[in-house]
């Protein structure tokens, strides 16, 4: 099976001529309408280059992945509805703006998803955050739910589901099943990840076409161990231990 060539783009400011602007590999595009890929800006590509580099140390990995997570959270929040809101400025003038409508919460898929909680807290003060632990069952090698702790009113909230790497989507799909069993409508779930595989994105789009995926990058594919390639390796290991 021939691998589709990864798209390449000139990056850098417009005042530089194209031959002065380096070519870099950018995200694959996808056909699924519910997959939202962040704009492939020079900053985003530089941040991804940092965290993909095997020589990047743990401190830098944490710092730069957090910057991308902030971009993901900000983009996800743009998918939530707003209401008209007119205010008065200190000059006595009115300004017609908007305000958020509804309640949100985060749900991190342990353990790697917990690495995205900081960015969510930085963007949404005192946000409630639930957790789901799913691990591969030793005997069946299928994902199994081990633990969940979720806000009791989660069915009335928009849910930002957090997991940095969308590989096959097996555990994330199970997490969505858990959320739906608690009454969360599919269209109120936003699944945030740093890097997605085309296979994972397609699995989600097929099973949950109304759920939105917000990702920074759709990578080339999966290797024989279901690691994303070129990827960044094991996210949890790089964030928590190495
Ligand atoms: N989880 C990771 O941490 N990395 C991958 O490449 C796939 C899943």
Number of helices: 6
- Class inferred from helices and paired strands: alpha/beta
Strand and helix order = EEEHHEEEHEEEEHEHEEEH
CATH topology: Rossmann fold
**Total beta strand runs:** 14
Can you tell me the CATH architecture? 3-Layer(aba) Sandwich
Largest sheet: 8 strands, mixed
The unreliable regions are none
The span between the termini is: 35 Å
- What is the share of helical residues? 25-40%
The dominant shape is globular
Assembly form of the protein? single chain
List the bound ligands.
uracil
Mean pLDDT across the residues is: 95
- CATH class label: Alpha Beta
Number of domains: 1
Instruction: Kindly provide the radius of gyration, computed on alpha-carbon positions and rounded to a whole number of angstroms.
Output: 19 Å
β content, as a range?
A: 25-35%
Structure at a glance:
The chain is an alpha/beta fold and 242 residues long. It has 6 helices and 14 strands.
Question: Could you characterize what this model shows?
Answer:
- The protein is of the alpha/beta class and 242 residues long.
- It has one domain: Rossmann fold, CATH 3.40.50.2020.
- 27% of the residues lie in helices and 30% in strands.
- The chain has 6 helices and 14 strands.
- Strands 3, 6, 7, 8, 9, 10, 11 and 12 form an 8-stranded mixed beta sheet that branches.
- Helix 3 links the parallel strand 6 and strand 7.
- Helix 1 crosses helix 2 and helix 2 packs across helix 3.
- It is globular, with a radius of gyration of 19 Å.
- The chain starts with 7 loop residues before the first strand and ends with a helix.
- The mean pLDDT is 95.
- It binds uracil.
């Amino acid at each position: 099976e021939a691998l589709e060539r990864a798209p390449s783009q000139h990056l850098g400011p417009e005042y530089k001529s194209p031959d002065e602007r380096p070519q870099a590999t950018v995200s694959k595009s996808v056909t699924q309408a519910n997959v939202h890929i962040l704009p492939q800006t020079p900053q985003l590509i530089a941040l991804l280059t940092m965290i993909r580099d095997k020589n990047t140390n743990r401190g830098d990995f944490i710092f730069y992945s957090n910057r991308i997570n902030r971009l993901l959270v900000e983009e996800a929040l743009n998918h939530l509805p707003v209401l008209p809101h007119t205010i008065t400025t200190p000059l006595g003038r009115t300004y017609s703006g908007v305000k958020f409508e509804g309640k949100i919460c985060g749900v991190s898929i342990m353990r790697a998803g917990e690495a995205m909680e900081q960015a969510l807290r930085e963007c949404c003060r005192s946000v409630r955050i639930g957790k789901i632990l799913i691990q591969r069952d030793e005997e069946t090698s299928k994902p199994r739910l081990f633990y969940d702790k979720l806000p009791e009113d989660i069915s009335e909230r928009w849910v930002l589901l957090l997991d940095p790497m969308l590989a096959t989507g097996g555990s994330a799909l199970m997490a969505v099943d858990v959320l739906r069993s608690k009454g969360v409508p599919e269209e109120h779930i936003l699944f945030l990840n740093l890097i997605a595989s085309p296979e994972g994105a397609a699995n989600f789009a097929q099973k949950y076409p109304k759920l939105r995926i917000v990702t920074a990058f759709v990578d080339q594919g999966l290797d024989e161990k279901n690691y994303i390639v070129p990827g960044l390796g094991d996210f949890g290991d790089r964030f928590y231990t190495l």
